[in-house]
Amino acid sequence: MNSYQQGWTLRRRVVALLTVVLVLLLGLAAAEAVVAAKNRQNIDAVLVRTGPLRVQGQELLSALLDQETAVRGYAVNGDRKDLAPYEAGQQRERATVTAMEKLAADYPGVLRELRVVEEQAARWRSGVAEPVITTTERSGPAAGQALITDQTRQQFDGIRAAVGQLQDEILIVRQQTADKVTRTGNVLVVLLIIAALVVAVAGVVMVLSLDRILIRPLAGLVGQVREVAAGDYEHHITGAGPPEFRRLADDIDGMRQKIARELAEVREARERIEWVNSQLQKQAEELTRSNRDLEQFAYVASHDLQEPLRKVASFCQLLQRRYAGQLDERADQYIAFAVDGAQRMQRLINDLLAFSRIGRLTTGFTEVDLNKVMGDVAGQTEAARQYAGAELTWGELPVIRGEEPLLTNLLANLVSNSIKFRRPDVPPKVHVSARLVDDEWEITCQDNGIGIEPEFADKIFMIFQRLHAKDAYPGTGIGLAIVKKIAEYHGGRVWVDTGTEEGTAIRFTLPALPEDVEAAKAVTAADAADGTAVDAESTGDETVTGDGADAAGDAPVGRQPGGSEREDAPDGTAGHGTTGGMRETVG
To answer: I want to staple 339 with a disulfide (CB 3.0 to 4.6 A). Which of 67, 279, 316, 423 is the partner?
Structure first.
Protein backbone atom coordinates (compact mmCIF):
# COMPACT_ATOMS: atom_id res chain seq x y z
CA MET A 1 0.00 0.00 0.00
CA ASN A 2 2.80 2.37 0.94
CA SER A 3 4.73 1.45 -2.19
CA TYR A 4 1.62 2.18 -4.22
CA GLN A 5 1.34 5.60 -2.55
CA GLN A 6 5.02 6.31 -3.23
CA GLY A 7 4.67 5.40 -6.92
CA TRP A 8 2.58 6.92 -9.60
CA THR A 9 -1.12 6.85 -9.06
CA LEU A 10 -3.48 5.51 -11.71
CA ARG A 11 -4.73 8.99 -12.42
CA ARG A 12 -1.18 10.29 -12.81
CA ARG A 13 -0.27 7.44 -15.12
CA VAL A 14 -3.36 8.01 -17.21
CA VAL A 15 -2.63 11.76 -17.44
CA ALA A 16 1.02 11.13 -18.37
CA LEU A 17 0.03 8.53 -20.96
CA LEU A 18 -2.58 10.81 -22.48
CA THR A 19 -0.08 13.70 -22.58
CA VAL A 20 2.49 11.63 -24.48
CA VAL A 21 -0.13 10.27 -26.85
CA LEU A 22 -1.52 13.77 -27.44
CA VAL A 23 1.90 15.19 -28.28
CA LEU A 24 2.64 12.32 -30.68
CA LEU A 25 -0.76 12.58 -32.36
CA LEU A 26 -0.45 16.36 -32.75
CA GLY A 27 2.93 15.92 -34.40
CA LEU A 28 1.56 13.23 -36.70
CA ALA A 29 -1.49 15.38 -37.50
CA ALA A 30 0.71 18.31 -38.50
CA ALA A 31 2.81 16.07 -40.76
CA GLU A 32 -0.29 14.52 -42.28
CA ALA A 33 -1.76 17.97 -42.96
CA VAL A 34 1.37 18.99 -44.90
CA VAL A 35 1.46 15.75 -46.89
CA ALA A 36 -2.31 15.87 -47.51
CA ALA A 37 -2.04 19.41 -48.89
CA LYS A 38 0.68 18.29 -51.30
CA ASN A 39 -1.35 15.22 -52.24
CA ARG A 40 -4.40 17.38 -52.89
CA GLN A 41 -2.37 19.60 -55.21
CA ASN A 42 -1.19 16.57 -57.18
CA ILE A 43 -4.71 15.14 -57.40
CA ASP A 44 -6.02 18.49 -58.61
CA ALA A 45 -3.36 18.48 -61.31
CA VAL A 46 -4.48 15.02 -62.46
CA LEU A 47 -8.21 15.70 -62.36
CA VAL A 48 -8.44 19.37 -63.31
CA ARG A 49 -5.57 19.74 -65.77
CA THR A 50 -4.04 16.57 -67.23
CA GLY A 51 -7.35 14.68 -67.33
CA PRO A 52 -9.23 17.43 -69.23
CA LEU A 53 -6.18 17.80 -71.48
CA ARG A 54 -6.72 14.24 -72.71
CA VAL A 55 -10.38 14.99 -73.44
CA GLN A 56 -9.51 18.25 -75.19
CA GLY A 57 -6.93 16.40 -77.30
CA GLN A 58 -9.63 14.00 -78.48
CA GLU A 59 -11.93 16.98 -79.15
CA LEU A 60 -9.17 18.59 -81.24
CA LEU A 61 -8.83 15.42 -83.34
CA SER A 62 -12.63 15.32 -83.77
CA ALA A 63 -12.66 18.95 -85.01
CA LEU A 64 -9.88 18.20 -87.51
CA LEU A 65 -11.71 15.07 -88.73
CA ASP A 66 -14.89 17.12 -89.23
CA GLN A 67 -12.93 19.55 -91.40
CA GLU A 68 -11.40 16.79 -93.50
CA THR A 69 -14.76 15.00 -93.91
CA ALA A 70 -16.50 18.26 -94.89
CA VAL A 71 -13.87 19.03 -97.55
CA ARG A 72 -14.17 15.54 -99.05
CA GLY A 73 -17.98 15.78 -99.00
CA TYR A 74 -17.90 19.17 -100.71
CA ALA A 75 -15.54 17.83 -103.37
CA VAL A 76 -18.01 15.01 -104.07
CA ASN A 77 -21.27 17.01 -104.14
CA GLY A 78 -20.26 20.62 -104.71
CA ASP A 79 -22.93 21.69 -102.20
CA ARG A 80 -21.92 24.66 -100.06
CA LYS A 81 -23.97 23.24 -97.19
CA ASP A 82 -21.42 20.45 -96.90
CA LEU A 83 -18.82 23.06 -95.84
CA ALA A 84 -20.72 23.95 -92.67
CA PRO A 85 -18.87 21.25 -90.63
CA TYR A 86 -15.58 22.59 -92.06
CA GLU A 87 -16.18 26.09 -90.70
CA ALA A 88 -17.62 24.76 -87.45
CA GLY A 89 -14.61 22.45 -87.10
CA GLN A 90 -12.23 25.42 -87.38
CA GLN A 91 -14.12 27.26 -84.65
CA ARG A 92 -14.04 24.17 -82.41
CA GLU A 93 -10.34 23.75 -83.17
CA ARG A 94 -9.53 27.33 -82.13
CA ALA A 95 -11.63 27.06 -78.96
CA THR A 96 -10.04 23.71 -78.07
CA VAL A 97 -6.49 24.97 -78.66
CA THR A 98 -7.18 28.01 -76.46
CA ALA A 99 -8.51 25.79 -73.66
CA MET A 100 -5.54 23.39 -73.96
CA GLU A 101 -3.04 26.25 -73.83
CA LYS A 102 -4.54 27.40 -70.54
CA LEU A 103 -4.48 23.88 -69.07
CA ALA A 104 -0.95 23.13 -70.32
CA ALA A 105 0.63 26.39 -69.17
CA ASP A 106 3.00 24.48 -66.83
CA TYR A 107 3.76 21.68 -69.31
CA PRO A 108 6.16 22.89 -72.04
CA GLY A 109 6.28 19.47 -73.71
CA VAL A 110 2.54 19.48 -74.20
CA LEU A 111 2.61 23.04 -75.56
CA ARG A 112 5.36 22.06 -77.99
CA GLU A 113 3.38 19.10 -79.35
CA LEU A 114 0.27 21.30 -79.56
CA ARG A 115 2.16 23.81 -81.71
CA VAL A 116 3.23 20.98 -84.02
CA VAL A 117 -0.40 19.89 -84.46
CA GLU A 118 -1.52 23.45 -85.20
CA GLU A 119 1.29 23.98 -87.74
CA GLN A 120 0.46 20.75 -89.59
CA ALA A 121 -3.26 21.58 -89.55
CA ALA A 122 -2.57 25.04 -90.94
CA ARG A 123 -0.37 23.56 -93.71
CA TRP A 124 -3.08 21.03 -94.56
CA ARG A 125 -5.74 23.74 -94.81
CA SER A 126 -3.58 26.01 -96.94
CA GLY A 127 -2.16 23.22 -99.10
CA VAL A 128 -5.16 20.89 -99.42
CA ALA A 129 -8.48 22.09 -98.03
CA GLU A 130 -8.57 25.61 -99.41
CA PRO A 131 -7.35 24.59 -102.93
CA VAL A 132 -9.94 21.80 -103.05
CA ILE A 133 -12.70 24.21 -102.01
CA THR A 134 -11.58 26.86 -104.50
CA THR A 135 -11.20 24.39 -107.34
CA THR A 136 -14.60 22.82 -106.63
CA GLU A 137 -16.25 26.25 -106.64
CA ARG A 138 -14.63 27.22 -109.94
CA SER A 139 -14.41 23.95 -111.89
CA GLY A 140 -16.87 21.57 -110.24
CA PRO A 141 -16.70 18.43 -108.05
CA ALA A 142 -14.66 16.43 -110.55
CA ALA A 143 -11.81 18.91 -110.47
CA GLY A 144 -12.01 19.10 -106.68
CA GLN A 145 -11.86 15.32 -106.32
CA ALA A 146 -8.81 15.22 -108.57
CA LEU A 147 -6.90 17.22 -105.93
CA ILE A 148 -7.66 14.64 -103.22
CA THR A 149 -4.82 12.14 -103.68
CA ASP A 150 -2.98 9.63 -101.56
CA GLN A 151 -0.43 12.33 -100.82
CA THR A 152 -3.07 14.64 -99.37
CA ARG A 153 -4.47 11.77 -97.32
CA GLN A 154 -0.99 11.00 -96.03
CA GLN A 155 -0.63 14.66 -95.10
CA PHE A 156 -3.78 14.43 -92.98
CA ASP A 157 -2.53 11.15 -91.54
CA GLY A 158 0.46 13.17 -90.39
CA ILE A 159 -1.93 15.40 -88.47
CA ARG A 160 -3.44 12.31 -86.82
CA ALA A 161 0.05 11.15 -85.88
CA ALA A 162 0.86 14.58 -84.42
CA VAL A 163 -2.32 14.46 -82.33
CA GLY A 164 -1.31 10.98 -81.20
CA GLN A 165 2.09 12.30 -80.10
CA LEU A 166 0.31 15.13 -78.28
CA GLN A 167 -1.88 12.60 -76.46
CA ASP A 168 1.21 10.53 -75.60
CA GLU A 169 2.91 13.59 -74.14
CA ILE A 170 -0.20 14.40 -72.11
CA LEU A 171 -0.28 10.81 -70.90
CA ILE A 172 3.38 11.04 -69.82
CA VAL A 173 2.69 14.25 -67.87
CA ARG A 174 -0.39 12.70 -66.34
CA GLN A 175 1.52 9.56 -65.34
CA GLN A 176 4.26 11.66 -63.71
CA THR A 177 1.67 13.57 -61.71
CA ALA A 178 -0.10 10.32 -60.82
CA ASP A 179 3.20 8.92 -59.53
CA LYS A 180 3.50 11.95 -57.26
CA VAL A 181 0.00 11.28 -56.00
CA THR A 182 0.97 7.68 -55.28
CA ARG A 183 4.08 8.71 -53.37
CA THR A 184 2.29 11.27 -51.22
CA GLY A 185 -0.54 8.79 -50.70
CA ASN A 186 1.94 6.20 -49.47
CA VAL A 187 3.43 8.71 -47.04
CA LEU A 188 -0.05 9.46 -45.76
CA VAL A 189 -0.70 5.76 -45.27
CA VAL A 190 2.54 5.37 -43.34
CA LEU A 191 1.68 8.32 -41.11
CA LEU A 192 -1.78 6.92 -40.50
CA ILE A 193 -0.29 3.53 -39.63
CA ILE A 194 2.08 5.22 -37.18
CA ALA A 195 -0.84 7.12 -35.66
CA ALA A 196 -2.80 3.88 -35.36
CA LEU A 197 0.16 2.19 -33.70
CA VAL A 198 0.50 5.08 -31.25
CA VAL A 199 -3.16 4.82 -30.36
CA ALA A 200 -2.94 1.03 -30.08
CA VAL A 201 0.09 1.11 -27.81
CA ALA A 202 -1.50 3.80 -25.68
CA GLY A 203 -4.63 1.70 -25.43
CA VAL A 204 -2.72 -1.40 -24.38
CA VAL A 205 -0.81 0.50 -21.73
CA MET A 206 -3.99 2.08 -20.46
CA VAL A 207 -5.77 -1.29 -20.30
CA LEU A 208 -2.86 -2.83 -18.37
CA SER A 209 -2.84 0.15 -16.03
CA LEU A 210 -6.52 -0.08 -15.13
CA ASP A 211 -7.71 -2.04 -12.20
CA ARG A 212 -8.64 -5.68 -12.87
CA ILE A 213 -12.05 -5.18 -11.38
CA LEU A 214 -12.97 -2.57 -13.97
CA ILE A 215 -11.28 -4.11 -16.99
CA ARG A 216 -12.74 -7.62 -16.81
CA PRO A 217 -16.41 -6.65 -16.54
CA LEU A 218 -15.97 -4.05 -19.23
CA ALA A 219 -14.18 -6.52 -21.50
CA GLY A 220 -16.93 -9.07 -20.99
CA LEU A 221 -19.59 -6.50 -21.82
CA VAL A 222 -17.67 -5.36 -24.89
CA GLY A 223 -17.30 -8.95 -26.04
CA GLN A 224 -21.02 -9.52 -25.82
CA VAL A 225 -21.75 -6.26 -27.66
CA ARG A 226 -19.34 -7.31 -30.40
CA GLU A 227 -21.10 -10.63 -30.78
CA VAL A 228 -24.31 -8.71 -31.34
CA ALA A 229 -22.58 -6.30 -33.74
CA ALA A 230 -21.20 -9.28 -35.67
CA GLY A 231 -24.75 -10.38 -36.43
CA ASP A 232 -25.93 -12.41 -33.42
CA TYR A 233 -28.84 -10.11 -32.58
CA GLU A 234 -30.55 -12.81 -30.50
CA HIS A 235 -27.66 -12.96 -28.00
CA HIS A 236 -28.85 -11.84 -24.55
CA ILE A 237 -26.45 -9.35 -22.91
CA THR A 238 -25.77 -9.80 -19.18
CA GLY A 239 -23.65 -7.56 -16.98
CA ALA A 240 -21.13 -8.24 -14.18
CA GLY A 241 -19.10 -6.19 -11.71
CA PRO A 242 -20.30 -2.86 -10.35
CA PRO A 243 -24.01 -1.99 -10.42
CA GLU A 244 -23.33 0.69 -13.04
CA PHE A 245 -22.08 -1.97 -15.45
CA ARG A 246 -25.10 -4.19 -14.80
CA ARG A 247 -27.47 -1.29 -15.44
CA LEU A 248 -25.51 -0.41 -18.57
CA ALA A 249 -25.78 -4.03 -19.75
CA ASP A 250 -29.57 -3.97 -19.24
CA ASP A 251 -29.87 -0.73 -21.22
CA ILE A 252 -27.74 -2.13 -24.06
CA ASP A 253 -29.80 -5.33 -24.12
CA GLY A 254 -33.02 -3.29 -24.39
CA MET A 255 -31.49 -1.36 -27.28
CA ARG A 256 -30.43 -4.69 -28.85
CA GLN A 257 -33.97 -5.99 -28.76
CA LYS A 258 -35.31 -2.82 -30.40
CA ILE A 259 -32.60 -2.91 -33.07
CA ALA A 260 -33.34 -6.58 -33.77
CA ARG A 261 -37.01 -5.81 -34.37
CA GLU A 262 -36.28 -2.84 -36.61
CA LEU A 263 -33.54 -4.73 -38.44
CA ALA A 264 -36.00 -7.44 -39.44
CA GLU A 265 -38.20 -4.77 -41.00
CA VAL A 266 -35.20 -3.14 -42.69
CA ARG A 267 -34.13 -6.46 -44.20
CA GLU A 268 -37.53 -6.99 -45.72
CA ALA A 269 -37.55 -3.44 -47.11
CA ARG A 270 -34.00 -3.85 -48.43
CA GLU A 271 -34.91 -7.04 -50.26
CA ARG A 272 -37.77 -5.22 -51.95
CA ILE A 273 -35.55 -2.26 -52.80
CA GLU A 274 -32.83 -4.52 -54.20
CA TRP A 275 -35.36 -6.20 -56.45
CA VAL A 276 -36.66 -2.85 -57.70
CA ASN A 277 -33.09 -1.62 -58.23
CA SER A 278 -32.23 -4.72 -60.24
CA GLN A 279 -35.23 -4.12 -62.48
CA LEU A 280 -34.30 -0.46 -62.91
CA GLN A 281 -30.71 -1.43 -63.70
CA LYS A 282 -31.90 -3.83 -66.40
CA GLN A 283 -34.11 -1.14 -67.89
CA ALA A 284 -31.27 1.40 -67.79
CA GLU A 285 -28.92 -1.03 -69.51
CA GLU A 286 -31.53 -1.79 -72.15
CA LEU A 287 -32.14 1.92 -72.71
CA THR A 288 -28.41 2.57 -72.99
CA ARG A 289 -28.05 -0.25 -75.51
CA SER A 290 -31.03 1.00 -77.49
CA ASN A 291 -29.66 4.57 -77.59
CA ARG A 292 -26.27 3.26 -78.64
CA ASP A 293 -27.82 1.22 -81.44
CA LEU A 294 -29.81 4.26 -82.54
CA GLU A 295 -26.69 6.42 -82.60
CA GLN A 296 -24.88 3.77 -84.65
CA PHE A 297 -27.79 3.46 -87.04
CA ALA A 298 -27.95 7.23 -87.55
CA TYR A 299 -24.22 7.30 -88.27
CA VAL A 300 -24.42 4.40 -90.73
CA ALA A 301 -27.50 5.82 -92.43
CA SER A 302 -25.98 9.27 -92.84
CA HIS A 303 -22.52 8.13 -93.96
CA ASP A 304 -22.35 4.53 -95.19
CA LEU A 305 -25.77 4.14 -96.82
CA GLN A 306 -26.35 7.52 -98.42
CA GLU A 307 -23.32 7.52 -100.72
CA PRO A 308 -23.85 4.14 -102.47
CA LEU A 309 -27.59 4.81 -102.63
CA ARG A 310 -26.98 8.12 -104.36
CA LYS A 311 -24.77 6.34 -106.88
CA VAL A 312 -27.39 3.68 -107.53
CA ALA A 313 -30.12 6.30 -108.03
CA SER A 314 -27.91 8.49 -110.23
CA PHE A 315 -26.78 5.68 -112.52
CA CYS A 316 -30.30 4.24 -112.76
CA GLN A 317 -31.58 7.65 -113.80
CA LEU A 318 -28.77 7.98 -116.35
CA LEU A 319 -29.64 4.52 -117.67
CA GLN A 320 -33.31 5.51 -117.88
CA ARG A 321 -32.61 8.73 -119.75
CA ARG A 322 -30.07 7.24 -122.17
CA TYR A 323 -31.79 3.97 -123.10
CA ALA A 324 -35.45 4.94 -122.67
CA GLY A 325 -37.34 3.60 -125.68
CA GLN A 326 -34.30 1.74 -127.07
CA LEU A 327 -35.02 -1.47 -125.16
CA ASP A 328 -38.23 -3.38 -124.89
CA GLU A 329 -41.12 -2.24 -122.73
CA ARG A 330 -40.28 -4.65 -119.92
CA ALA A 331 -36.69 -3.35 -119.70
CA ASP A 332 -38.01 0.22 -119.41
CA GLN A 333 -40.35 -0.99 -116.68
CA TYR A 334 -37.51 -2.69 -114.79
CA ILE A 335 -35.39 0.46 -114.97
CA ALA A 336 -38.33 2.53 -113.71
CA PHE A 337 -38.75 0.10 -110.80
CA ALA A 338 -35.05 0.45 -109.91
CA VAL A 339 -35.18 4.26 -110.04
CA ASP A 340 -38.36 4.37 -107.95
CA GLY A 341 -36.95 1.93 -105.39
CA ALA A 342 -33.71 3.90 -104.98
CA GLN A 343 -35.59 7.18 -104.60
CA ARG A 344 -38.00 5.69 -102.08
CA MET A 345 -35.07 4.27 -100.11
CA GLN A 346 -33.47 7.73 -100.02
CA ARG A 347 -36.70 9.26 -98.73
CA LEU A 348 -37.02 6.49 -96.17
CA ILE A 349 -33.47 6.98 -94.88
CA ASN A 350 -33.93 10.75 -94.66
CA ASP A 351 -37.21 10.32 -92.76
CA LEU A 352 -35.60 7.82 -90.36
CA LEU A 353 -32.73 10.22 -89.73
CA ALA A 354 -35.18 13.05 -89.04
CA PHE A 355 -37.13 10.78 -86.67
CA SER A 356 -34.02 9.67 -84.77
CA ARG A 357 -32.69 13.22 -84.39
CA ILE A 358 -35.80 14.56 -82.66
CA GLY A 359 -34.83 15.33 -79.06
CA ARG A 360 -31.15 14.44 -79.60
CA LEU A 361 -30.02 17.39 -81.70
CA THR A 362 -31.60 20.30 -79.85
CA THR A 363 -31.28 24.04 -80.39
CA GLY A 364 -33.00 24.94 -77.11
CA PHE A 365 -36.52 26.15 -76.41
CA THR A 366 -37.47 29.72 -77.29
CA GLU A 367 -40.75 31.59 -77.60
CA VAL A 368 -42.28 30.60 -80.94
CA ASP A 369 -45.18 32.42 -82.62
CA LEU A 370 -47.25 29.69 -84.29
CA ASN A 371 -48.76 32.26 -86.66
CA LYS A 372 -45.30 32.79 -88.15
CA VAL A 373 -44.81 29.03 -88.20
CA MET A 374 -48.02 28.60 -90.19
CA GLY A 375 -46.77 31.18 -92.66
CA ASP A 376 -43.65 29.05 -93.18
CA VAL A 377 -45.81 25.94 -93.50
CA ALA A 378 -47.91 27.67 -96.16
CA GLY A 379 -44.75 28.38 -98.14
CA GLN A 380 -43.48 24.81 -97.80
CA THR A 381 -46.78 23.27 -98.97
CA GLU A 382 -47.48 25.78 -101.74
CA ALA A 383 -46.59 23.39 -104.58
CA ALA A 384 -48.77 20.59 -103.19
CA ARG A 385 -51.67 23.00 -102.65
CA GLN A 386 -51.39 24.36 -106.18
CA TYR A 387 -51.48 20.83 -107.59
CA ALA A 388 -54.50 19.79 -105.50
CA GLY A 389 -56.32 23.14 -105.58
CA ALA A 390 -56.23 23.17 -101.76
CA GLU A 391 -57.32 25.94 -99.40
CA LEU A 392 -55.32 26.45 -96.19
CA THR A 393 -56.65 28.73 -93.42
CA TRP A 394 -55.80 29.25 -89.78
CA GLY A 395 -57.12 31.25 -86.88
CA GLU A 396 -55.11 33.23 -84.35
CA LEU A 397 -52.51 30.89 -82.86
CA PRO A 398 -50.62 31.33 -79.58
CA VAL A 399 -47.01 31.93 -78.65
CA ILE A 400 -45.47 28.90 -76.93
CA ARG A 401 -42.02 27.74 -75.84
CA GLY A 402 -40.42 25.20 -78.11
CA GLU A 403 -38.10 24.63 -81.06
CA GLU A 404 -39.36 26.43 -84.14
CA PRO A 405 -37.91 23.98 -86.75
CA LEU A 406 -39.56 21.00 -85.02
CA LEU A 407 -42.93 22.77 -84.68
CA THR A 408 -42.75 23.79 -88.33
CA ASN A 409 -42.08 20.15 -89.24
CA LEU A 410 -45.03 19.02 -87.10
CA LEU A 411 -47.56 21.39 -88.68
CA ALA A 412 -46.15 20.84 -92.18
CA ASN A 413 -46.65 17.08 -91.79
CA LEU A 414 -50.26 17.54 -90.67
CA VAL A 415 -51.10 19.98 -93.48
CA SER A 416 -49.37 17.79 -96.08
CA ASN A 417 -51.30 14.73 -94.90
CA SER A 418 -54.58 16.65 -95.09
CA ILE A 419 -53.81 17.64 -98.69
CA LYS A 420 -52.57 14.17 -99.68
CA PHE A 421 -55.49 12.17 -98.24
CA ARG A 422 -58.19 14.13 -100.06
CA ARG A 423 -61.43 12.94 -101.55
CA PRO A 424 -61.61 12.63 -105.35
CA ASP A 425 -63.12 15.66 -107.11
CA VAL A 426 -63.41 17.58 -103.79
CA PRO A 427 -61.02 20.55 -103.34
CA PRO A 428 -59.17 20.04 -100.03
CA LYS A 429 -59.82 22.50 -97.22
CA VAL A 430 -57.51 22.58 -94.20
CA HIS A 431 -58.05 24.75 -91.11
CA VAL A 432 -55.74 25.07 -88.08
CA SER A 433 -57.13 26.50 -84.83
CA ALA A 434 -56.20 26.66 -81.14
CA ARG A 435 -57.94 26.86 -77.78
CA LEU A 436 -56.71 26.99 -74.19
CA VAL A 437 -57.64 23.98 -72.05
CA ASP A 438 -56.45 24.30 -68.43
CA ASP A 439 -52.69 24.96 -68.75
CA GLU A 440 -52.29 23.57 -72.29
CA TRP A 441 -52.98 24.77 -75.80
CA GLU A 442 -55.07 22.31 -77.79
CA ILE A 443 -54.29 22.82 -81.48
CA THR A 444 -56.49 21.22 -84.15
CA CYS A 445 -55.78 20.51 -87.82
CA GLN A 446 -59.18 19.90 -89.47
CA ASP A 447 -59.70 18.84 -93.10
CA ASN A 448 -62.46 17.59 -95.37
CA GLY A 449 -60.54 14.55 -96.62
CA ILE A 450 -61.22 10.82 -96.61
CA GLY A 451 -61.24 10.57 -92.81
CA ILE A 452 -59.90 7.85 -90.49
CA GLU A 453 -61.83 4.93 -89.09
CA PRO A 454 -61.91 4.89 -85.24
CA GLU A 455 -60.20 1.49 -85.05
CA PHE A 456 -57.15 2.95 -86.81
CA ALA A 457 -56.96 6.14 -84.70
CA ASP A 458 -53.96 4.92 -82.65
CA LYS A 459 -52.29 2.84 -85.36
CA ILE A 460 -51.56 5.80 -87.65
CA PHE A 461 -49.05 7.28 -85.17
CA MET A 462 -46.88 4.16 -85.22
CA ILE A 463 -43.77 4.27 -87.37
CA PHE A 464 -44.11 2.68 -90.86
CA GLN A 465 -47.83 2.08 -90.30
CA ARG A 466 -49.81 2.71 -93.49
CA LEU A 467 -53.56 2.29 -93.98
CA HIS A 468 -53.30 2.39 -97.78
CA ALA A 469 -51.05 0.88 -100.42
CA LYS A 470 -48.06 2.98 -101.44
CA ASP A 471 -49.43 3.16 -104.98
CA ALA A 472 -52.64 4.81 -103.71
CA TYR A 473 -50.93 7.49 -101.61
CA PRO A 474 -47.18 8.23 -101.70
CA GLY A 475 -45.03 8.50 -98.60
CA THR A 476 -42.97 6.42 -96.17
CA GLY A 477 -45.50 6.06 -93.36
CA ILE A 478 -43.35 7.95 -90.84
CA GLY A 479 -44.84 11.46 -90.97
CA LEU A 480 -47.38 11.04 -88.14
CA ALA A 481 -44.81 9.16 -86.05
CA ILE A 482 -42.62 12.27 -86.33
CA VAL A 483 -45.64 14.41 -85.34
CA LYS A 484 -46.19 12.26 -82.24
CA LYS A 485 -42.53 12.34 -81.23
CA ILE A 486 -42.27 16.14 -81.65
CA ALA A 487 -45.46 16.72 -79.63
CA GLU A 488 -44.26 14.45 -76.81
CA TYR A 489 -40.79 16.07 -76.90
CA HIS A 490 -42.51 19.41 -76.22
CA GLY A 491 -44.45 17.92 -73.30
CA GLY A 492 -47.73 17.38 -75.14
CA ARG A 493 -49.70 14.57 -76.74
CA VAL A 494 -51.46 13.94 -80.05
CA TRP A 495 -54.62 12.06 -81.02
CA VAL A 496 -57.32 11.74 -83.65
CA ASP A 497 -60.73 13.20 -82.84
CA THR A 498 -62.99 10.34 -83.94
CA GLY A 499 -66.15 12.39 -83.35
CA THR A 500 -65.85 14.54 -86.47
CA GLU A 501 -68.63 14.10 -89.00
CA GLU A 502 -66.53 14.87 -92.08
CA GLY A 503 -62.84 14.56 -92.83
CA THR A 504 -60.16 14.21 -90.17
CA ALA A 505 -59.38 16.29 -87.07
CA ILE A 506 -55.97 15.67 -85.52
CA ARG A 507 -55.41 17.43 -82.21
CA PHE A 508 -52.23 17.94 -80.23
CA THR A 509 -51.39 19.84 -77.06
CA LEU A 510 -48.51 22.11 -76.10
CA PRO A 511 -47.82 23.62 -72.64
CA ALA A 512 -49.10 27.19 -72.38
CA LEU A 513 -47.03 30.10 -71.11
CA PRO A 514 -47.78 31.02 -67.47
CA GLU A 515 -48.95 34.50 -68.45
CA ASP A 516 -51.51 33.02 -70.86
CA VAL A 517 -52.88 30.75 -68.12
CA GLU A 518 -53.10 33.67 -65.67
CA ALA A 519 -54.82 35.82 -68.28
CA ALA A 520 -57.40 33.08 -68.93
CA LYS A 521 -58.08 32.75 -65.20
CA ALA A 522 -58.51 36.50 -64.89
CA VAL A 523 -61.01 36.57 -67.77
CA THR A 524 -62.94 33.64 -66.27
CA ALA A 525 -63.06 35.32 -62.85
CA ALA A 526 -64.23 38.62 -64.38
CA ASP A 527 -66.95 36.87 -66.37
CA ALA A 528 -68.12 35.01 -63.27
CA ALA A 529 -68.24 38.26 -61.23
CA ASP A 530 -70.19 40.10 -63.95
CA GLY A 531 -72.64 37.28 -64.65
CA THR A 532 -73.67 36.29 -61.09
CA ALA A 533 -76.45 37.98 -59.11
CA VAL A 534 -77.38 37.15 -55.53
CA ASP A 535 -80.79 37.97 -54.03
CA ALA A 536 -80.13 40.32 -51.10
CA GLU A 537 -83.39 39.47 -49.37
CA SER A 538 -83.77 36.35 -47.20
CA THR A 539 -86.47 34.83 -49.40
CA GLY A 540 -84.68 31.54 -50.04
CA ASP A 541 -84.33 32.22 -53.78
CA GLU A 542 -81.51 30.46 -55.60
CA THR A 543 -78.49 32.38 -56.91
CA VAL A 544 -78.98 32.99 -60.61
CA THR A 545 -76.42 33.66 -63.34
CA GLY A 546 -76.60 36.37 -65.91
CA ASP A 547 -75.37 36.25 -69.44
CA GLY A 548 -71.78 35.31 -68.56
CA ALA A 549 -69.88 33.53 -71.27
CA ASP A 550 -68.56 30.01 -71.12
CA ALA A 551 -64.96 29.93 -69.89
CA ALA A 552 -63.77 27.42 -72.41
CA GLY A 553 -65.23 29.28 -75.33
CA ASP A 554 -64.02 32.74 -74.27
CA ALA A 555 -60.55 31.88 -73.02
CA PRO A 556 -57.92 34.20 -74.47
CA VAL A 557 -55.87 32.62 -77.19
CA GLY A 558 -52.56 34.04 -76.05
CA ARG A 559 -49.91 36.67 -76.51
CA GLN A 560 -48.95 37.93 -79.92
CA PRO A 561 -45.76 39.78 -80.78
CA GLY A 562 -47.66 43.04 -80.44
CA GLY A 563 -48.85 42.10 -76.95
CA SER A 564 -52.56 41.90 -77.82
CA GLU A 565 -54.95 39.24 -76.62
CA ARG A 566 -57.57 37.51 -78.71
CA GLU A 567 -60.31 34.94 -78.34
CA ASP A 568 -61.28 31.77 -80.17
CA ALA A 569 -64.88 31.24 -81.11
CA PRO A 570 -66.32 27.86 -80.08
CA ASP A 571 -66.16 26.57 -83.65
CA GLY A 572 -62.40 27.11 -83.80
CA THR A 573 -62.48 30.19 -86.09
CA ALA A 574 -60.79 33.42 -85.18
CA GLY A 575 -62.66 35.62 -82.70
CA HIS A 576 -63.99 39.08 -83.44
CA GLY A 577 -61.76 42.12 -83.18
CA THR A 578 -58.55 40.19 -83.82
CA THR A 579 -56.04 39.91 -86.61
CA GLY A 580 -57.00 36.24 -87.06
CA GLY A 581 -58.82 34.53 -89.86
CA MET A 582 -55.68 34.52 -92.01
CA ARG A 583 -56.21 32.64 -95.29
CA GLU A 584 -53.86 31.06 -97.77
CA THR A 585 -55.84 29.89 -100.80
CA VAL A 586 -54.39 28.38 -103.96
CA GLY A 587 -56.14 26.76 -106.92
So the answer is: 316
